Amino acid sequence: MKLFAKKILLADGWANEQTLTIEQGVITDITAGYVTGAERANGVVIPGMVNCHSHAFQRAFAGFSEQGSEGQDSFWTWRNVMYKFLGQLSSEDVQVIASQLYIEMLKMGYTRVAEFHYLHHDIDGQNHQNLATMAQAIFAAAEQSGIGLTLLPVLYRFSGFGPQAATDGQKRFINSVAQFNDLVTDCFALAKLQPNCNVGIAPHSLRAVDKSSLLAAVEHVRALDAQAPIHIHIAEQQREVADCLAHYGQRPVQWLLNNADLDRHWCLIHATHIDEQERKGIIASQAVAGICPTTEANLGDGIFPTDEFLLDNGTFAIGSDSHISVNPIEELRWLEYAQRLSKQQRALLATSEQKSVGLNLWQKAATGGAQSTNSNTGALAINKQADLLVLDDSQLRLFAHDDIHLLDSVIFASQGNPVLDVMVNGHWVIRGSEHTLAQDSANSFAKLLARLSA
């Protein structure tokens, strides 16, 4: 197919009146001017966004954990409530939730998701006859919705440093290393059965894996794919840092830098509480920092030092994590606003080369997200996958919309969802802000919520 755009954000910047040739989901040519027969995009075209961190089942949990308890709530109390909630979910339930979530992601401009998947076993904690039963639900939801998927089966062994035995609330997560590696192998086989999917792994956190299990899981996935993405929760909470110091004598990121061969295929999720040495170590390793501003705010995690990280040319991606918000615009807005509030300055995440905060953040988050998922996405260029958004001109015209200001207006001034059409891997999945399965999915999801909250 051919797609003509009056205005388009290409890898090297804004361009006017360009025609993309798309074959088998990939951009094979970009031609100046209108090419006969090309479809006309009904608005500004920009690259789709990658969601680097998702726990799909938590979408159904949104809104259930906002009850106060006289200032005693924390990440740790939230986690206990979440454990009780997920104890009710079957594989069929997970598919309903993930399908609804992924349609919502597509509508808001996410075109690929990294699913940090740790809900492995049956409700009673027993193995499914097929180890990958829960993973199959995620694959099915991605196929149904049309979103690109990077599945990250999670290795979860312990409840805390020590190691400490897993709790009853964690029984659905736990695998031996051998069983986990079998699950990963099964997921690689499943990924071959549908397009636009790949598989990596996610050692959950340093409190949930020890050194031997971490390295064994990495060795196994590297044997299957030397470039498979590896994601890990790290330094999300100050208590986590203190516990790591007490057990290992090192801060979490420093321990990881010293004990694992970090490279550009690693993504460090919630590396919130890091010191200068750790920050520079992440950048030197070329690993991606996975930042989830709305979830980190909702859980009271803290603020990642994004300003300093970007000044040193660090690579970052954004994720919606617990899905208290499913909106890349809001994630990027709060990425900047958190820095403004903590530094009491403005426009901190611009650069001398790129004065537009919005443009700088969108491009860097998209390319960083592509790196974090080892996907051929993140920019609109020849030989890149055709993952793109068409923005609604009727909304853009009400705000500053010349090249330098357009994405600033989208991120900081838009009052509604400006995403009109969404293409993933060369296929339209959202047209006129709608998904063909949206109503059926919403009805199924609403019925599920009614049962869960009864």
What does this protein look like?
This protein has 15 helices and 17 strands. The chain has helices spanning 75-86, 91-108, 133-145, 177-191, 211-224, 238-248, 252-259, 276-285, 293-298, 306-311, 328-343, 357-373, 393-396, 403-412, 438-452, and strands spanning 2-10, 13-23, 26-32, 39-40, 43-47, 49-54, 110-117, 148-155, 197-199, 202-203, 230-233, 266-269, 288-291, 315-318, 388-392, 419-424, 427-430. The strands form four sheets. Strands 6, 7, 8, 9 and 10 form a five-stranded parallel beta sheet that branches. A four-stranded mixed beta sheet has the order 3-2-1-4, with no helix packed on it. Strand 8, helix 4 (177-191) and strand 9 (197-199) form a beta-alpha-beta unit. Helix 2 crosses helix 15 (438-452) and helix 4 packs parallel to helix 5 (211-224). 51% of the residues are buried.
Spell out the key features of this protein.
5-stranded parallel β-sheet, alpha/beta
Spans of 5+ residues with little confidence (pLDDT < 50)?
A: none
Q: What can be said about the biggest beta sheet?
A: 5 strands, parallel
How much of the sequence lies in strands comes to 15-25%
**What share of residues is helical?**
25-40%
Oligomer: single chain
Shape descriptor: globular
Give me the secondary-structure category. Answer: alpha/beta
In whole angstroms, the N-to-C terminal distance is 49 Å
Tell me the number of helical segments per DSSP (H or I, 4 or more residues long): 15
What is the strand tally? Answer: 17
Q: Quick check: average pLDDT? A: 94
Helices and strands in order:
Layout: E1 2-10, E2 13-23, E3 26-32, E4 39-40, E5 43-47, E6 49-54, H1 75-86, H2 91-108, E7 110-117, H3 133-145, E8 148-155, H4 177-191, E9 197-199, E10 202-203, H5 211-224, E11 230-233, H6 238-248, H7 252-259, E12 266-269, H8 276-285, E13 288-291, H9 293-298, H10 306-311, E14 315-318, H11 328-343, H12 357-373, E15 388-392, H13 393-396, H14 403-412, E16 419-424, E17 427-430, H15 438-452
Parallel strand pairs: 1-4, 6-7, 7-8, 8-9, 8-10, 11-12, 12-13, 13-14
Antiparallel strand pairs: 1-2, 2-3, 5-15, 15-16, 16-17
Helix pairs in contact: 2-3, 2-15, 4-5, 12-14
